[in-house]
Amino acid sequence: MFTKQNMHKAFLLISAAVITAGAILIMNLGDYFDAQGFLSFTVQSNLLTAIAFVLMVILYNRECKLRSYIAFSVMVSITITGLVYNLVLVPAVEEILPITSDFPNFSTHFLSMVLALGNYFVFEKKGTFTFSHIIAGVIFPIIYWIVFISIGEIINYFPYFFMEPQVIGWPMAFVWFGIIFIAVSVLSLALVFFDRWRGKKQSGQLMN
């Protein structure tokens, strides 16, 4: 029987497959496979979203708070991926192509974000997010920044221009960190408030 639960599970699994394909294809540069792409926030956030979708199917019928934290964390990370790419990188870096350039670019920088947000808005139960979820939302972007700002010079790899203090200077690197931290925190807080509002609204409708 094709219930809403089965439809939701199918959506998660199909989305995971599409997102994984996009992440792998974007590292395929035609004549060779760019394994260094695994270090980019884009690929990592996409693959984590795909993994999270599969885990959400596995944990589907279990009373497990971990599922909501997983959903929240990847939704924030993949949304940041889409927003930073389209609103910061495309306007600022001449070599950066718009999302309409090809499927891998479209998938990793836009479609994956739409699928993650669509999953929440269409399928997920509302009213489950708490203020502690904000920590889950900000932890991955912060850890990513700390790791690469620390080892970027050692491994000779800086994922993004705003994480390269040797070029833009340490003060500007921290300014960019502050901007990203505030953006991630505001996004996380907005999602929590929206979720609590929707949860109360749905509870009120059920009581009526």
Describe this structure in words.
The chain is mostly helical. Helices cover 74% and strands 0% of the residues. The chain is built from seven helices and no strands. It has helices at residues 4-25, 41-58, 65-92, 103-123, 133-155, 165-168, 170-207. Helix 3 packs antiparallel against helix 4 and helix 5 packs antiparallel against helix 7. The protein is globular, with a radius of gyration of 18 Å. The two termini are 30 Å apart. The mean pLDDT is 90.
Descriptive tags:
mainly alpha, globular, 208 residues
Topology, pairings included?
Layout: H1 4-25, H2 41-58, H3 65-92, H4 103-123, H5 133-155, H6 165-168, H7 170-207
Helix pairs in contact: 1-2, 1-4, 2-3, 2-4, 3-4, 3-5, 3-7, 5-7
Strand-pairing-aware structural class: mainly alpha
Could you give a short account of the major beta sheet?
A: none
Distance between the termini: 30 Å
Q: Number of DSSP strands?
A: 0
Q: What is the alpha-carbon Rg in Å?
A: 18 Å
Q: Output the number of helix runs.
A: 7
